[in-house]
Amino acid sequence: MPTTSAFTGGDHMQPWSLTVDRLITHAARWHGDRELVSREADGRIVRSSWAASERRARRFSAALLAAGIRPGDRIGTLAMNGARHVEAWFGMMGVGIVCHTINPRLFEDQLAYIVEHGGDRWLLADPMFAPLAEQLRARCPSIERVIYLCDAGGLPPGAAPGSDFDGLLAAHEPDAAWGGFDEHAPAALCYTSGTTGHPKGVLYSHRSQLLHTMICAQADAIALSARDTVLAIVPMFHANAWGLPFMAAAAGAKFVLPGIKLDGRSVYELLETEAVTFSGAVPTVWQVLLDYLTVNRLRLSTLKRVAIGGSACPEALIRGFRDGHGVQVLHAWGMTELSPIGTVAGRAPPEVAARGPDAELALNLKQGRVPFGVDMKITDDEDRRLPHDGRTPGHLRVQGPAISARYFREDREALDAEGYFDTGDIGTVDEHGYLQITDRAKDLIKSGGEWISSVEIENIAAGHPKALMAAVVAIPHPRWRERPLLVVQLKDGASATRDEFLGFLEGKIAKFWMPDDVVFIEKMPLGATGKLDKKVLRTRYPGSAAS
Ligand code: AMP
């Protein structure tokens, strides 16, 4: 019998590197006619297909290389969801250029920081973001060129002739060679708010994105199919639209991109006219849609499943979709650092389903189970694992091939001794393996799916000449889920008004960061070390959350 060493002549399987260009190449080759449908800013519906968009993406690759952009260089995008944005992604990634998606709603100083830290060489922008793109170009020396995601007729006033995406594509052939590089090479960059200091960059690799796509393809995860029509409402600048463009390409699904308008009527129209079967968005978007449907007595006729995540999914949403429209909610938890899917609660396991719809609903309200490819644990303050009894909350830590080990330009790994990443969330895990998020250890507020840094607002507010101390806590809000409340202790003898403080913050933070209210308190609660004790504040302002 041969010894095992006879079989150690290296890997006998094919060296098929896990690079994301394979996804769109597959979609173009095997599902070429399946449509990509975009709604432009002016409301027009524009149709492409995986085959046509793949060719356009290759033209863009050729344009980038001809302009001297090199593998590993970063290109920023300031854009909503549209087919050109998808083409730009694959065009960059196909030749190893890093696609840096940027949230255009951030405050200008933050945006400038992110662009400079990313070292973006070009900015690709929707024409509606032209003023922002031009401001950033003026502030950030790394930006050599702004390209607008439109045709020549759609260029914003003052834009350089030839700076339209379509014109650039027309000047190049669809002949760029894709892939052929190390699967560990970076593919995409996305910044997320840290509790303190500047936003942090999550640098996804080709391998991590491809594996995330395959992780999400599992039946109890997202499981898109070639029979699905997918409406990607979650923005492409937020954790790569949860990876939906990659998943849709892998499945060969029809892919619908809604652009800027996400009000109830606009979303409903797209769902119905395009016969959408699957969609993903934060709870705020779904709440607005369900309210619209109720008020107008409308029904969803094609939608079968919705992924809801980014914040906890309220019971009313699950009931509204299930009872009113027969739509299955996939309640997902994740983070930018996780690519982003961490857990999914969809159809209950048989032992729970057997107990009836109420038991199923109770489980659906939890954040769900890990798919293969993600592992999680909950730990106490000393890093000891806690039991899965559904009652004991602990620090939620995760591990997997699509989870960050460290942030962009940071050397230090953000992992514990067992190689798990601390999510900053607090949760329980029950006997079925279902995670429930119960609290947040990180000092942040999540409003309409986007982060607000309490610490940053506090630091600015504390700079008001009449302020002795300032704190920001989250208060519940029916539409945005959480909104900031500013709590101020004034200096001895000082008096001030709410508007004085709000006026002081104006122009220093993004509009959506502006606290909904300001309250003045006699004495700020302090902990043993003299630090502000937010736990006490949270009990004083009922419903205020972990911030
Ligand atoms: P982001 O990186 O912006 O996607 O935010 C990730 C964070 O959002 C998580 O660490 C949680 O604090 C929160 N989050 C995401 N999904 C959920 C969910 N389903 N329920 C509760 N919190 C969530």
Topology:
Layout lengths: L20 H10 L4 E5 L5 E5 H17 L7 E5 L4 H12 L3 E4 L6 H11 L3 E4 L4 H10 L5 E4 L16 H6 L15 E7 L7 E6 H11 L12 E4 L11 H8 L2 E4 L6 H10 L4 E4 L1 H13 L9 E5 L5 H11 L2 E7 L6 E5 L4 H4 L3 H8 L10 E5 L14 E6 L21 E9 L5 E6 L3 E4 L2 E4 H9 L4 E11 L3 E10 L7 H8 L11 E4 L13 H7 L7
Parallel strand pairs: 1-10, 3-4, 3-5, 4-7, 5-6, 9-10, 9-11, 11-12, 12-13, 22-23
Antiparallel strand pairs: 1-2, 7-8, 13-14, 15-16, 16-17, 17-18, 19-20, 21-22
Bound molecules: adenosine monophosphate.
Task: Give a written overview of the molecule.
This protein is α/β, with parallel strands linked by helices and 547 residues long. Among the domains are: 21-32 and 45-205, ANL, N-terminal domain (Rossmann fold), CATH 3.40.50; 445-540, ANL, C-terminal domain (GMP Synthetase, Chain A, domain 3). 28% of the residues lie in helices and 23% in strands. An eight-stranded mixed sheet has the order 2-1-10-9-11-12-13-14, with helices on both faces. Strand 11, helix 10 and strand 12 form a beta-alpha-beta unit. The radius of gyration is 24 Å and the shape is globular.
End-to-end separation in angstroms reads: 65 Å
CATH topology (level 3) name of the domain at 21-32 and 45-205: Rossmann fold
Helical stretch count? Answer: 16
Write down the CATH class of the domain at 21-32 and 45-205: Alpha Beta
Which strand order does the major sheet show?
2-1-10-9-11-12-13-14
Q: What's the architecture of the domain at 21-32 and 45-205 in CATH terms?
A: 3-Layer(aba) Sandwich
Cα radius of gyration in angstroms: 24 Å
Q: Could you tell me the number of beta strands?
A: 23
Describe the global form. Answer: globular
User: Which stretches of 5+ consecutive residues score pLDDT under 50?
Assistant: none
Strand content: 15-25%
Query: On the 0-100 scale, what is the average pLDDT?
Result: 94
Could you give a short account of the major beta sheet? 8 strands, mixed
Which structural class is indicated by helix and strand composition? Answer: alpha/beta
Please estimate the helix content. 25-40%
CATH superfamily of the domain at 21-32 and 45-205: ANL, N-terminal domain
